[in-house]
């Protein structure tokens, strides 16, 4: 169930009774300590009366303690062991105040994570949520005093970050964010959205009282929660804590449930993105591997993308001057000479469009539509190397595209060839392709289009005309921590790029343009071209942050003023064909405000493959990731 | 859905239409060829009209062909590629007749399996089901003739086995068994049940017609299907083929659905086994790892096991002679001397029971019950090393066992110690433990009980008194093939033993006793004992078969005539605490009828661990599996 709601019990003689009571009220779980808060020795409430299925509804709470004291360290270790024993999934730990206590707590957490992963037969260690306040407590109390508030708004985040760095961004480490007061500045909020928040803690005292005496949240809170829900894709819980101040504890739950039913919680993304939020995927290699029918099917349903293509093809067809010849037709006298003349102008007259990499034909459809709209007759060569897709193209040609005779606006020829090696019978007026990946050129569009040089002229229009990749450094515990899990199937997860629908991430700076490819003149043979690239980019952070790698995007000019983009500032709304690409850094690094982050990225072209290498130059030089394309390389064959 | 039902379409112009029609009739899927049977070139029905979700309801049928012809080999390769392309999950291939064709087909299948596993990003290759008849076709036709039937009843199995051996028992290779006539001899049927059958093919002509003109199956068929369903734990489908002979095609489906609702399909196993059929699990190591509360909870619900324990403890308590002293009480005159005497006999009088490895206390409960029934007063020491279980024991002692004062039948002391290192205050009359694993001694019961030598006497009764392991060679594609998958997490899957609720397996011979441990006298110190063992066992096969390893069991004398057993011939019904254990052979080998299978098994004891090594000596010597306990060893610490 998405966005569960729990209640935090501070002191209970009988966990089982307390749990059942709050479940009866409608809460989905409770947060409770394992030992009575005033007990110093470890004498936990027993699990005797807690049924197996009930235990997953218990989050164990560990109050703030000073982990400079050895006794407190043993106590929390006992709590961990016992929670593990009774099958508790989640621990909520109140973050200590001083640096040494933080260090000791981090060590304890780390040992839990490590010891559990050794026994692959055992229950997994519980998830650990670090409770931190959005607003530092000092600031909160200073409201009540008149002296100058000496508040460090980074304090919470720095404490969390310290524990995270020591546990090396462990995938079982999470944030429980206490929403304790009006939101801080937007940039700091954004930074929290790059952290793996799984709980939003709300005190009953944070609720206002409406005219019917029911608890409600202020607009500021509502907006914060809306953003939180979006960035976390609904993968978090609410925890209500504090005394009942509004008649009955279930009224808080009812209010949150009400919010959940409003458009505050509506996520308007396509169904093709749902469930893919922050999930790392290995990029497709359509040149090396034939795409499956289902993959084609999904991509074909991207209306936005194909509308743009149709518009671009229409504009390009309008531009192609051959069709102006229609008028000549009126002046031909005799029937025989007219036949000859017709043959002659049929050749000249037809514009020739080549759809290279036609797949199951969506661009063929769009080219036919554009021809109809622009009142042209077009001969379309649908060139496709995937023999399985050819089966579909053949059927569509017979059923929809008029077979050999064609339609009034054009005729389609199916060619089962790799576009790079096809001996084309004529030159193209228009070449249409959809060979772009998340990072623009990463599915080898430049190399494929270089290969068509012998069936184009200098006048041939290429759609897309040009494209550029973009990148920006990112803070995302969520993305990075998955690489630790991935390690089991991929030994070198840090030398790979991943396609991912990015949500739970903080962009440290605005994206900058990286590599650009322009296809105005395709007639140069491949050996005269150089598609290798290199660029050093300098970014600047606004806040203290951690850099976990960079995110890549692309934009593309199809023709004239028709664009496709997945760059956040210019992206086409509701287009879902491309998720961004994430390139990790093996060693994440801390960054101070105004620090420069310098990243060097190269695109390398070998005889058999193309690959990227990436390096951090500043603040601390890193290794060259994916050196020689040893791990992630895009095959040319 | 368990036990789906499909219909085989032999010739369809329009797969989509045909599929929808049969789904409307209630079938769950159809089996159909991709190309028209009379077409020689590969021109498949297109997927244009087949929606994404419909494709999983299509099983592609490949009719019998002669794979000596290159053309047929290319054809099936095209079919594989296209099926893969359109997202089909399952291929049904009719098994060819001659050896060369079989070899060629095996190569093609093998290449499919291998090529697909390289691209971990792609759709998985479809499962391949080899269609073979239960009764050879020759025998079938010979029924119609009077000449002596020259029938090889092993033919089908041998053809399947040939393909299986070449594909190395691949986890994606399955059997589609044609139930074509009355069942053959029971042993051959049993052998089929050791094969990964996923489809049972039934011709409409195999159905009888009942008085209402509806199709029904004979008793012989029904029993075969019942056994099939049990052995496969419901993980198979029916495929109906042939013309409609009974009014409407849906009547066959209705009849099978009727059977599914009868007790023919009822599986009376405990809910704790459900879903674990043929699932390999790493054995627990309760000595090294503390058990989880939920693990205790599940095992505590095994009523059969604890009934046997209660009975054994009752009989043992009856036997302990101290309690006969009750009668002396009558002759004591003065009050003071009586107090003294009481103290004195309390010490002598009390029988002392020690539950070593008490867990959360189920044997403590049983010992108290047995004391009550046998009218004894017992002091129970519950010795447990797991500090988390002690929490529960402490609570139970207060709540149920009368705390310090105890109950009328006894008092309980909780001792948080490893039984091997406990300095006991007195000697035990009775020691009760439950330290046995699937293979008897494999959870180190002998080593643990050796450790209690300094708090027992020669008269101390030990429950269990003795136990033995058993083993027999097994044919099970299902168990063995999982090791190929397992390889990703366990690099040496063939040097490991796995706990598994065995179903889809054929026992090649009856189990034989292997190692026995007797605990009549526990007073000898551990350094005078030797728990290492070695044995060479000779088994004999009845049929041609393949040996994939051996399965281990145990039985145990708790006391007197009270036994626990998981050996098939003597097992306690409805006891679920132990599944058998499976030891694989790295290289499965073919066995002829009456061949001897000689297996050497050793139990080795080192300073830090105990381990088994196993070797095939005949028919072909194997490597020593798990040499030096390098991969699977049971820790003593």
TrEMBL record, chains A, B:
**What's one GO BP annotation on this UniProt entry?**
regulation of DNA-templated transcription
Please name the GO terms that the record assigns under molecular function. Answer: protein-arginine N-methyltransferase activity
PRMT5 arginine-N-methyltransferase domain residues are 271-462
According to its UniProt record, which residues of this chain constitute the active site? 434 (proton donor/acceptor), 443 (proton donor/acceptor)
Indicate the annotated site residue(s) for Critical for specifying symmetric addition of methyl groups: 299
GO cellular component term of the entry, any = nucleus
Q: Output the PROSITE patterns linked to this UniProt entry.
A: SAM_MT_PRMT (PS51678)
Q: Where does S-adenosyl-L-methionine bind?
A: 296, 305-306, 384, 418-419
Entry keyword set: Methyltransferase, S-adenosyl-L-methionine, Transferase
Domain (PRMT5 TIM barrel) ranges: 26-260
- Domain named PRMT5 oligomerisation: residues: 466-634
**Tree of life domain:** Eukaryota
Q: Which InterPro entries match?
A: Arg_MeTrfase (IPR025799), Arg_MeTrfase_PRMT5 (IPR007857), PRMT5 (IPR035075), PRMT5_C (IPR035248), PRMT5_TIM (IPR035247), SAM-dependent_MTases_sf (IPR029063)
Q: Which Pfam family would be a valid example here?
A: PRMT5_C
What's the family?
A: Belongs to the class I-like SAM-binding methyltransferase superfamily.
Q: What is this protein called?
A: Protein arginine N-methyltransferase
Q: Which organism is it from?
A: Blomia tropicalis (Mite)
């Amino acid at each position: 169930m998405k966005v569960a709601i729990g209640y935090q019990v501070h002191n209970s003689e009988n966990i089982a009774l307390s749990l059942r009571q709050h479940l009866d009220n409608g809460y989905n779980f409770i947060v409770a300590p394992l030992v009575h808060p005033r007990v110093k020795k470890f004498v936990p409430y027993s699990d005797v009366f807690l049924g197996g299925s009930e235990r997953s509804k218990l989050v164990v709470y560990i109050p703030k303690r000073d982990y400079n004291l050895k006794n407190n360290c043993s106590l929390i270790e006992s709590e961990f062991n016992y929670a593990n024993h009774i099958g508790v999934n989640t621990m909520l730990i109140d973050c200590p105040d001083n640096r040494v206590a933080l260090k000791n707590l981090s060590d304890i957490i780390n040992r839990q994570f490590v010891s559990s992963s050794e026994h692959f037969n055992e229950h997994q260690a519980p998830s650990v949520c670090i409770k931190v306040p959005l607003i530092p407590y000092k600031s909160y109390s200073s409201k009540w005093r008149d002296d100058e508030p000496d508040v460090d708004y980074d304090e919470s985040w720095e404490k969390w970050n310290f524990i995270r760095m020591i546990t090396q961004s462990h995938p079982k480490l999470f944030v429980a964010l206490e929403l304790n007061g009006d939101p801080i500045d937007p940039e700091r909020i954004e930074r929290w959205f790059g952290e793996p928040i799984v709980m939003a803690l709300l005190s009953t005292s944070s609720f206002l009282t409406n005219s019917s005496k029911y608890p409600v949240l202020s607009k500021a809170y509502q907006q914060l929660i809306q953003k939180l829900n979006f960035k976390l894709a609904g993968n978090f819980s609410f925890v209500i804590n504090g005394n009942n101040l509004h008649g009955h504890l279930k009224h808080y739950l009812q209010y949150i449930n009400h919010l959940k039913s409003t458009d505050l919680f509506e996520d308007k993304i396509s169904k093709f993105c749902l469930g893919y939020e922050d999930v790392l995927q290995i990029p497709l290699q359509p040149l090396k591997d034939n795409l499956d029918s289902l993959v084609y099917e999904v991509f074909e349903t991207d209306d936005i993308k194909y509308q743009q293509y149709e518009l671009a093809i229409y504009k390009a067809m309008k531009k192609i001057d051959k069709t102006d010849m229609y008028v000549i037709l009126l002046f031909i006298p005799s029937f025989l000479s007219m036949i000859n003349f017709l043959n002659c102008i049929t050749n000249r007259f037809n514009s020739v469009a080549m759809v290279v990499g036609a797949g199951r034909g969506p661009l063929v459809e769009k080219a036919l539509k554009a021809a109809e709209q622009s009142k042209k007759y077009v001969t379309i060569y649908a060139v496709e190397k995937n023999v399985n897709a050819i089966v579909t193209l053949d059927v569509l040609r017979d059923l929809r595209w008029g077979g050999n005779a064609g339609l009034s606006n054009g005729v389609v020829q199916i060619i089962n060839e790799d576009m790079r090696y096809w001996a084309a019978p004529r030159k193209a007026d228009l070449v249409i392709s959809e060979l772009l990946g998340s990072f623009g050129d990463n599915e080898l569009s430049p190399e494929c289009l270089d290969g068509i040089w012998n069936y184009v002229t200098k006048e041939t229009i290429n759609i897309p005309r040009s494209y550029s990749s973009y990148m920006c450094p990112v803070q995302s515990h969520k993305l990075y921590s998955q690489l630790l899990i991935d390690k089991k199937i991929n030994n070198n997860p840090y030398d790979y790029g991943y396609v991912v629908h990015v949500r739970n991430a903080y962009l440290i700076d605005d994206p900058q343009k990286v590599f650009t490819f322009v296809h105005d003149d395709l007639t140069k043979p491949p050996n005269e071209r150089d598609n290798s690239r290199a660029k050093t980019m300098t970014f600047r952070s606004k806040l203290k942050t951690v850099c976990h790698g960079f995110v890549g995007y692309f934009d593309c000019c199809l023709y004239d003023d028709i664009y496709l983009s997945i760059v956040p500032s210019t992206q086409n709304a509701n287009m879902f064909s491309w998720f961004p690409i994430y390139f990790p850094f093996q060693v994440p690094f801390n960054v101070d405000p105004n620090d420069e982050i310098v990243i060097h990225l190269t695109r390398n072209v070998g005889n058999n493959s193309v690959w990227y290498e990436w390096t951090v130059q500043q603040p601390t030089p890193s290794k060259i990731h994916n050196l020689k394309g040893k791990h992630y390389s895009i095959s040319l064959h």
